[in-house]
Fold each of these.
Amino acid sequence: MTAYDPENIFAKLLRGEIPAARVYEDEQTLAFMDIMPRADGHLLVIPKTPCRNVLDASPEQLAAVMQAVQKLSQAVLKAFSADGVTLQQFNEAAGGQEVFHLHFHILPRFEGDKLRPPGKMAEREVIEAHAAQLRAAVAAL
C-alpha cells in the first residue's frame, strides 16, 4: 500500500489551505459538504489525523470517525426530513477511492430517489444553504 500523501486535498483542507463548507468539528474529526454532491445534503466526514483509508486507520481513528458519522447521519435525517441515509466509504483506487485520506460519505435518501451521477459541481450558494441546515440540525441534537 502507498504511504499517506500529506498534499492530498483533504489534508490541505484541514490545514486551511483550501475552503470548505464546514458543518461539524470536534477534536478528532471534521465534517464538510461535498462540492460534487450526489444528493442534496451530501456530507463528508474525515479524521483530523493522517490515514489513507480503513486499511491503515488506527482503531482510535475509526472509532472517532464512526461516532461522528452516526451523529451526523442523525442530523442529515433531521435537516432534510430524509427517509434514510446511504453511507459510502472506498479503499484504494481499485475500490473506488479518489482522495487518499479516510472519508465517509453521508447522503440523505428518500423513497424512490436516485443519486445524481458523480462529478458535477454544485453552486456554492446551494452548498452553503445545505451546510447551514445541517449546522442547525447538529446544534439541535
Amino acid sequence: MFQIGDKVAYPMHGAGVIKCVTSEKILGEELKYYILEPCIGELEIKIPVAKIDNVGIRYIISENEADKVIEEFGSCKCIEMSNWNKRYRENLDKLKNGDIFEIAQITKTLIERDRKKSLSNYERKMLSNAKNILISELVMSKNSTYSDIERLLMSKIS
C-alpha cells in the first residue's frame, strides 16, 4: 500500500515519512512493519503492515488543502462545553479519527479556552499533542518549518 518515502499522517502521532519496511520474527511468525520517521521529534514508529487499514494512516494533505486548513483555522467556531470530561472525551475521539480539520478546531478551541480560563493538565497535554499533530502535517504539506507554521496559525487567532 505505502512505499518508502511516502509522506503520511498517523492519528495521535502526526505526520512523517515511511523510512523503510522491516521484518521481524515474533512467536515464530514473520511480521512486516513500516518504519515511520515523524517530522517532529526523534522517535521511530513501527506500524504492522497487516494492520495498516485499522490504524487510520493516510497520505498527508496537499498544499492547497493545507492552505484551506490554515484559512479555516482563523474562522472556525470554537465549541464550548462546560463539562470538561465530556469535552475531553469528544476531543480525544476526534484526535484518534485523524481528520486534520477537526484537529485544527480542537487546537484553536483549546488555545482560546486557555487564554480565557486555565486548562486542566489533561487538556493542556491534549493541546500540546493536537498542536504538534496539526503543525507536523502542515509542515510537510507546505514544505515549511515548525516555527513558521506555528507563527502563521497564531496570527490567524491573535
